[in-house]
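Example with several molecule types.
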Amino acid sequence: QQQVKQSPQSLIVQKGGISIINCAYENTAFDYFPWYQQFPGKGPALLIAIRPDVSEKKEGRFTISFNKSAKQFSLHIMDSQPGDSATYFCAAKGGTGGFKTIFGAGTRLFVKA
Amino acid sequence: DGGITQSPKYLFRKEGQNVTLSCEQNLNHDAMYWYRQDPGQGLRLIYYSQIVNDFQKGDIAEGYSVSREKKESFPLTVTSAQKNPTAFYLCASSTPDTDTQYFGPGTRLTVL
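Resulting C-alpha cells for the full complex:
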C-alpha cells in the first residue's frame, strides 16, 4: 500500500513533442506528490509538486495532472527539448508513511533532436 | 553557497571491508536521509534522521549503519554484512515545514 507505481520505464520523444509519465498510488492518506528530475551522475532535484486539493498544476512547460478518485497523477512536458533528457521520479509523502517519501521506479526520457 | 556535499564521488571497496560515505549540509536542515539507487528500482530509503542524536531504519537498513552527532553531518557506513553494496548512494535533507528533499550529488560505490 506504500508503493508508487510509475510507467513507462523509458520514453523516447521527438523534439517539440509532449512527454507523458504516469504514476499510481494506493495509500489515500498521501498528501504530497512531487516529481524529481535527475541528470546522469547527479542527485535528483525537485521539478514540480502538487497537493491533492487541486487537479492540475503548471510551471512553464511542466504540468502535473492529478486524479484523486483514480489515485493517479501524471507529468506532462510540453514542447520537449533535448535538455529535458533525464530520469524522472514521481513520489508521494504523508499518511501512514509519515516522514518518508516513497519514490516510483523512475522513467528515463530521451528527447530526439 | 548552501547545499549538500557528498564525498567521495567514486569509491572502490574490496569485499569484507567497511567503508564510510560522507554527507554534509549547510542548509540548516533538521532532517537528513540516505538512499540507495539501483537501475530500475528508484530510490530506496536506508536510514533517516529527524534530529541530532536520533535516527531510524528505513526500508533496507541491513548491512548499513549511521550516526548523527552534528546537525550538519550524517555519515553512512557500509559494512561487510551488506551483501550487494555496489550502488549509487544519495544523501538528502529537508526541513519540517517543507516536504521537499534536497539531494547531494551522490557517491558511486563499487565493490571489487
